[in-house]
Amino acid sequence: MTFKQITSPHGHNRQSTGRIMQLVLIATLPGLLVLSYQFGWGILINLFLAVLAAISAEALILKIRQRPIGFYLQDYSAVVTGVLLGLSLPPLVPWWLVIVATVFSIVVAKQLYGGLGSNPFNPAMVGYVVVLISFPIEMTTWVTPVSLLPEGVSHPGLFESLTIVFAGFSPMDGVTGATPLDLFKHSNGLLVDQIYQDNTLFSSASFAGVGWEWANVAFLLGGLGLLKARIFTWHGPVAMLVTLATMSMLFWDGGSSNSPGSPLMHLFSGASMFGAFFIVTDPVSSAVSNRGRLLYGALIGLLVYVIRAWGSYPDAVAFAVLLGNFAAPFIDNYTVPRTYGHNQRRKATAKEEDE
Amino acid sequence: MVAGHSHYNKRMQEFAIILVSSILINNYVLVQFLGLCPFMGVSKKLESAIGMSAATTFVLTLTAMASYIVNELILMPLGLIYLRTIGFILVIAAVVQFTKMFIEKTSPLLYRVLGVFLPLITTNCAVLGVALQNANKDLNFMQSSLYGFGAGIGFSLVLIFFSAMRERLAAANIPPPFEGAAIAMITAGLMSLAFMGFSGLV
Amino acid sequence: MSQGFKEITTNGLWHNNPALVQLLGLCPLLAVTSTVANALGLGLATLLVLVGSNTIVSLIRNHVSDAVRLPVFVMVIASFVTCTEMLMKAYTYELYQILGIFVPLIVTNCAILGRAEGFASKNSVGLAALDGFMMGLGFLLVLVALGALRELLGQGTLLVDMHLLFGPSAMNWLVKPFGENYSFLIFVLPPGAFLVAGVLIALKNMLDNMAKTRADSHKSKPVKGAKRVRTTGHIN
Amino acid sequence: MIELLTENIILAALVSLVGLGVLFGGLLGYAAEKFKVESDPIVEQLDELLPQTQCGQCGFPGCKPYAQSIADGDAINKCPPGGQSTINAIAKLLDVAAPSLDEEHGEEEIRTVAFIREDECIGCTKCIQACPVDAILGAAKLMHTVITQECTGCDLCVEPCPVDCIDMLPIEEDIDQWRWSIPKNQHQLIATSSSTVHETLT
Amino acid sequence: MRQLWETPGGVHPPENKVQSLKLGIGHLAIPEKLILPLIQHIGDAAKPCVAIGDVVLKGQKIASASGDLSAPVHAPTSGVISAIEDRPVAHPSGMSALCIEIISDSEERWIDLYGHTDYKQLSPQEVSHLIADAGVTGLGGAGFPSAAKLDNGRTKPVNTLIINATECEPYITADDILIRERAAEIIQGIGVISHVLDMPRRILIGIESNKPEAIDALREACKSTAIEVVVVPTKYPSGGEKQLVYILTGQEIPSGQLPSDIGMVCVNSGTAFAIKRAVIDGQPLISRIMTVTGDACGINRNYEVLIGTPVSHILEKNKFIRKNCSRLIMGGPMMGFSLSSSELPVVKTTTCILAPSHSEIPEEDPQQPCIRCGLCAEACPASLLPQQLYWYAQSEDHERLQAHNLFDCIECGACSYVCPSNIPLVQYYRSSKGNIINSRNAKISAAKARERFEFRQVRLNKAEQAREVKREARRVATEKAKTSSSSAADIINAANLRAKARQASPDQQKAKLERSLMAAKMRLDEAQERLAEANKSGSAEQQAQQHASVEGARQKVEQTKRRLEELIR
Amino acid sequence: MILSSIRDNALALALFALITALLLSLVNDLTDDRIAQAERLAAQSALLEVIPSERHDNDMLLDTQPVPQQFWSLLGLEKGGNVHIARYNNEPVAVIIPTISHEGYSGDIAMLVGVNLDGSVAGVRVVKHRETPGLGDKVELRKNSWILDFNGRSLSNTPPQKWAVKKAGGDFDQFTGATITPRAVINQLVNTLTYFDQDNDRLFALKQTPKTQDKQ
Ligand SMILES: Cc1cc2nc3c(=O)[nH]c(=O)nc-3n(C[C@@H](O)[C@H](O)[C@H](O)COP(=O)(O)O)c2cc1C
Ligand SMILES: Cc1cc2nc3c(=O)[nH]c(=O)nc-3n(C[C@H](O)[C@H](O)[C@H](O)COP(=O)(O)O)c2cc1C
Ligand SMILES: Cc1cc2nc3c(=O)[nH]c(=O)nc-3n(C[C@H](O)[C@H](O)[C@H](O)COP(=O)(O)O)c2cc1C
Ligand SMILES: Cc1cc2nc3c(=O)[nH]c(=O)nc-3n(C[C@H](O)[C@H](O)[C@H](O)CO)c2cc1C
Ligand code: SF4
Ligand code: SF4
Ligand code: SF4
Ligand code: SF4
Ligand code: FES
């Protein structure tokens, strides 16, 4: 009798890449719900457009490269990229902007490097930054959270939202405004207390801006779920959040007119939690070892704070992540864990002694 | 950033700003487009990149000082501003030659590591670029040196990280037309995208 | 060493193109190509310097010792650059201002010293000048292509600011194929320069590959092992 | 003096440039003499990488001369016995892109050793003279044998043999020398549909 | 309670051990043919000491140890030698190797057995000879000749003897059942081992917590001894030697070194049993306990199987159904290798025959790209970065692979087991290790070839010069002969001169001597190297042998030197 | 040996330096007039944009007055600056005041503000800024004509509360998506006009500097 030869180990724990990605998708749900409640249909339209564009772009490139399309799409990574990108774009941006962002993420940042697993930069963040820099007007107008809408004004309905997105009308006044971090940034010269009093965005919120704090809490919950499911280790997100908190504590300055904001605000506003649990954790573009991820997370946390406090981008997560990606391969070279039987950690650049 | 009181603090603050500006915000490679040839050419191996960085930083700092002296003591007093380019390039060639000799004499080991990179530095735009920019900006000696040093550190930072990244790309399954220089360019583009995050920092 | 006219031409323009293949002179290539006008301005300046320096270097190639060869070449190049700089200042001041320090930086454009060392110092004056011209032209064409692409993609215009080079009559060369309000800033900013340059290089690779597969199907295989020698000499 | 110079710009230019030239030329002249001979360690390193088959297929009498020639700028793809892995190694050392083997010099073949059919050998010693590594034992008029461990498989002994009694036999892999092969990376092989994925697996 | 240390990583695959534990150790009918590979262990193959047609008795030595780290092979039953030839053997390569085939006469006629119940009277060396002679090799994994391991342990002070009874692989229960049924004999075996090792300070039996009955049996058997039974948490691969050493003692075996370098020896419990049989009962290693399991077998149980039994024979007796079977595995699911055919024989290291059904171990899913999720790194017991190793294995970056400590990978397969992208990581590592070893070897032989080439070049140059000198001398001689009158004496003189010129000139002689001096020196170096190696790992006999050859080489060098000096003088 | 090498090489290089220097000084001699002219033109052109050449006949580059130190902070100047004065037939017609706003979105915005005798704005140009491309950079005339809206405005014809963006009830447009930059410009304009109010007597009382050749 003859048998097939297959190498060990025989058997597998039945985990699959596609399932991991599906879990990530599920974990975005709480955040998605809060966001859509707070900011209306725009979020869902973004999400839908981005996912559609991501899948189409991925399929197109696979076809050009003559790869099996079905096989590669089933890893769901394009969907994850689409969803994460859709979640970070402002609601009610024109449709073409979503498409441009997605095409940049999937084609330039991912497929030009060979597809899943090869890209050194986080695709979603590349897409986001490209449109942020190219189309600042569209990218800096956010929708006002539902609880702050003036009397009698409501978010546009589905049909209205679609016309805004596709026909290029701009949303009516009162519905759009700045994000809390943006507001904070350009209210330089005011005491923090004054900022909080002057702006309903802060005054009717408990810690970090109406709407935003709950979205952050929701992403935190989703992220903790993923952590529990052991999709990623705690090192990256915790390092990032701790550094961010520490920095904002150091420079908090008691709320003077120079203060870049309280730790609570930095942790729960903008994309902090979303970034910490969904972006920093992108396995492909982060550092590999646990120690490496600690450094990587800390670097991102530091950069987020530096850019938020002294740079000109109010929510610095995307830039910080790209800069972190940039440093990751270098970090990897110097954070190889100590292997069994070795006294010291080795650098990945170390030469064999006998050679 | 941090309010300084004494004169000393102010000086330090100014120096810190010069450094941050030349390393990150106005990074010579990614933002100002200087020194790109070695950036592309010597970034395939991390080890060579580190060697190149060290050598370039050294030469950059030294050139910034030397060209300041030449500019202030010879060219400016004699009204020979139009000879700046040629004067500076001579200074650079001399500094590179001097560095080479110096290293060879003092540390043969280091020379073996850095030796091959030294001649390449003469035609590195960043070196002449620093000298010219410093002269245009009318800086004092300390500031000039700091700009030179900062430029070197910025160059090194980017070059070293870039080479680590390129080593990682060696195993990636890149579409054939993009292999090599093309994907390196695109990677540099994404890096420069990331560096835009530093704009407005100071 | 001497090459024919055709070879020098194809080398400069395509096979050994300084910008796309040798990856030299990248700084100006990326820094001044946000518009065609800038690209053209710097490209012409570089071309001028290249032809001049190649010619002079070829003339003096037999009269300098090895030790000072390099500094002499650098000096030749630097003086050409300085002349160009002064001329540009005198006649196209605005363009000179836009190009900034990249005009004096032609001195360190590695392509120029590379040609002086690699070609002009070994060839006759005529060939050296031709090589300088072709290399310069190759460089110029890539600069202009990159400039055109970036200008078009980034701000939706072509031939903006040409009056800086060609006088006021060039004002109305401007075209706006995508309408008034188009803009895609990333292509004007530094990242776009890298991205478009990367795509250009890939494009060239693709064309080369296509040409190669076509050529391969026509060419007969070389004789395998034709160039072997005996390492152990004559056997008696 | 200074006044003279500041007043006469052309004179100033002359003096300062010539001054720099003299200074610099002197420096270089000194350097040229002082550091004249420099052995090229790269040749040794290249020679290390070549397979030392000494077969001459590269067109040089042995590996060392070819190493020297590479150091002088020759193409690195001329050694068939080394094959692609040697080309890659050299490319890495020299930090250049790795070309594929130049077929005009031969093809990368599986390694062989010479075997002398001893009953046919007439003891002419021609093969001994041909062997670059002294891997053949024997004396005039006595039959010869190949020391298998020392034979590099260069096949230089085959042609001189007047009675054609030397065969090049492929080195047979036995169970000790067997090595695991790299798994076929399926996702780079498959053409179009996912159903074929399973087929390539089986 | 002894303190335990926890290893990083590890996985918990489904254990699947109950099914084969329902029945005790069984016996199989003797197959009509037995095939005995001559290499069933790490080291050099044994040499046959019988010929085709010989009649052999059960337990008779049919191949004797030869070379480094070799072990003899014994006839598992009585019968006739029917073939000595290359046969496919159980090896991942599926290649063939030299085997002896016995046609059994089903009479089981034993040779005379000489047990040594009083082994304590013998010297450790003598006992270790007995073990070596019985062909005992490690039964737990790599098949390292046990006597060699113990001998080496004796040359360095050993303070800890570790008995590996963890059996961490899923499905396998051979050690478990052996302990349950024959714990006392194992303890006796441990006694023998500790005698050979000059009584180590502590003796630990490491056993996983999922074998309560075996633990009880061991505790019972150890009651009056100083042996400690240590229960370790169930986790794959705590049975790996390095891992077990760490779990039990908190010490790590330094990379590239052996347990004996830190004063430890680790032996499998089955090996201890085999040693007991070999020394106390005088029985050579001709059978072993082995698990036959998997859903494609109707019966799952352990057997005492004769070495050399074809797998097909075992399967037949266990209601094996071919079409249900997805693959045939020798060893456990994590480290075992798949067999290409069921005709292959069982060897000393075979712990298990696993014939899983298609649903039990399904086809592998196709490989997807690595997403660097790090699950593999979390599972790795050696704290490696499997994803980086995989990455560099793909780009064949040997330098980086070694810098990432590729050679510390124990090939346990935990990383592949958890990889969500189904990447056969271990195979990449095995192949990369092979490539690196190959290129190291190639470098060594290249260096040798260069030396020889350069040497030849020098020789040829010298010869050419010498010829030149001689030619010149001859020319001068003839000239002289021509110019002077051609008297008979002159002619003779000239002839003499010519002859003298033709004779090897001193220069030539010198060159020759120098050459042989160089060669002798090279030989001396080689011999010294071999001696050093033998000192490290060889037997005393080998050491003596190498010593002699070094001496010989040295004399040769002296001699040549002397002659050279004479010549110069 | 070493000395001769030094000498030879030094001489060779010196020779080349000589030739180069000659050549360069020659070219310099030929072009320096044109260059000086071009430089002057460039420096003037910024001023000329604010107050076109038909409105004055003096050389504004040379006709300057330093800003008194007490006004530096009002104008946002850290190192002081010069007010340029435009005259027609020796009579002052307008001034050009350098001023810097520190309220920009990502840094300082430097402007030149032309103010007529009557205190109305003659022209404003942003000469240096770091606002976000595509958002705040519409203050450049190249990008948007918004900056021309100020021409003719003065503190008297536009009440203080109207010196604001429309969103805040003022007279001036904001840019889509950006109010900070326009607000910064407007506020600084008010400051500049205030300064003019306080200092114009002095400025216009000052004697003119000698007229030089101006336009060609
Ligand atoms: C990345 C980024 C860049 C910005 N750049 C500018 C700018 O250059 N000028 C400006 O006025 N506002 C800038 N803003 C801030 C505006 O988007 C801000 O929300 C707006 O000025 C407030 O205007 P509103 O009062 O019309 O909502 C920027 C915001 C972001 C996020
Ligand atoms: C080449 C080689 C030499 C070895 N030499 C010794 C030795 O001298 N002493 C010893 O105790 N073990 C020695 N070992 C055995 C190992 O320590 C280990 O027990 C054996 O390889 C079984 O490994 P396993 O964990 O893979 O089953 C040697 C192993 C190998 C592969
Ligand atoms: C991953 C791995 C798992 C192992 N599991 C066991 C085991 O469960 N039981 C065992 O006795 N040996 C196991 N071994 C082999 C041991 O490392 C070691 O070689 C053996 O205990 C030495 O004993 P021996 O020479 O008597 O075979 C394993 C080895 C590896 C690499
Ligand atoms: C935990 C986790 C986080 C991820 N985060 C991102 C992300 O931030 N951006 C993105 O494009 N893809 C993300 N992905 C999907 C996938 O890794 C990504 O598309 C690859 O970078 C593409 O090669 C994530 C996947 C996982 C499992
Ligand atoms: S072809 Fe290769 S092996 Fe043969 S001589 Fe040349 S370098 Fe050596
Ligand atoms: S024996 Fe023949 S094939 Fe082998 S090395 Fe010598 S010449 Fe070459
Ligand atoms: S488990 Fe697999 S996919 Fe995850 S990092 Fe390891 S090799 Fe890559
Ligand atoms: S096989 Fe090697 S790399 Fe994988 S888990 Fe085991 S020790 Fe680690
Ligand atoms: S052009 Fe080569 S470094 Fe700038």
Secondary structure: elements and pairs:
The complex is a heterohexamer of chains A (355), B (202), C (236), D (202), E (569) and F (216).
Chain D: H1 2-7, H2 9-34, H3 41-49, H4 63-71, H5 83-94, E1 112-116, H6 126-130, E2 136-137, E3 145-146, E4 166-170, H7 186-189, H8 194-201
Antiparallel strand pairs in D: 1-4, 2-3
Helix pairs in contact in D: 3-4
Chain E: E1 26-27, E2 33-37, E3 47-48, E4 55-56, E5 61-64, E6 73-74, E7 79-88, E8 96-104, H1 124-133, H2 146-155, E9 160-164, H3 174-196, E10 202-208, H4 212-222, E11 228-232, H5 241-249, E12 264-268, H6 269-281, E13 287-293, E14 301-306, H7 311-316, E15 329-330, E16 337-338, E17 352-354, H8 375-379, H9 386-394, H10 398-403, H11 414-418, H12 425-483, H13 488-502, H14 506-537, H15 540-568
Parallel strand pairs in E: 1-14, 9-10, 9-12, 10-11, 13-17
Antiparallel strand pairs in E: 2-8, 3-5, 4-7, 5-6, 7-8, 13-14, 15-16, 15-17
Chain F: H1 2-50, E1 64-66, E2 82-88, E3 91-104, E4 107-116, E5 121-128, H2 180-205
Antiparallel strand pairs in F: 1-2, 2-3, 3-4, 4-5
Using brief descriptors, characterize the structure shown.
heterohexamer, D: 202 residues, mainly alpha, 3-methyladenine DNA Glycosylase II, Chain A, domain 3, Alpha-Beta Plaits, two-stranded antiparallel sheet, 8 helices, 4 strands, E: 569 residues, alpha/beta, Rossmann fold, six-stranded mixed sheet, 43% helix, elongated, binds flavin mononucleotide, binds riboflavin, binds iron/sulfur cluster, binds FE2/S2 (inorganic) cluster
- Shape of chain B from CA axes? globular
Give the radius of gyration of chain B.
18 Å
State the separation between the terminal residues of chain B, measured CA to CA: 8 Å
The tally of beta strands of chain E, per DSSP, is: 17
State the largest interface: A-E, 52 and 76 residues
| CATH architecture label name of the domain at 114-282 in chain E | 3-Layer(aba) Sandwich
Task: Indicate the CATH class of the domain at 114-282 in chain E.
Answer: Alpha Beta
The neighbouring-strand order within the major sheet of chain E is 1-14-13-17-15-16
Give the helix tally of chain B.
9
By DSSP (H or I, 4+ residues per run), the number of helices of chain E equals 15
Number of strands of chain B: 0
Helix content of chain B: over 70%
- Give the N-to-C terminal Cα separation of chain E: 78 Å
The biggest beta sheet of chain B is recorded as: none
Rounded to an integer in angstroms, the radius of gyration calculated over CA atoms of chain E is: 31 Å
The chain-level structural class of chain E is alpha/beta
InterPro entries (chain A): NqrB/RnfD, RnfD_bac
GO biological process, one term (chain A): transmembrane transport
GO cellular component, one term (chain A): plasma membrane
Subcellular location (chain A): Cell inner membrane
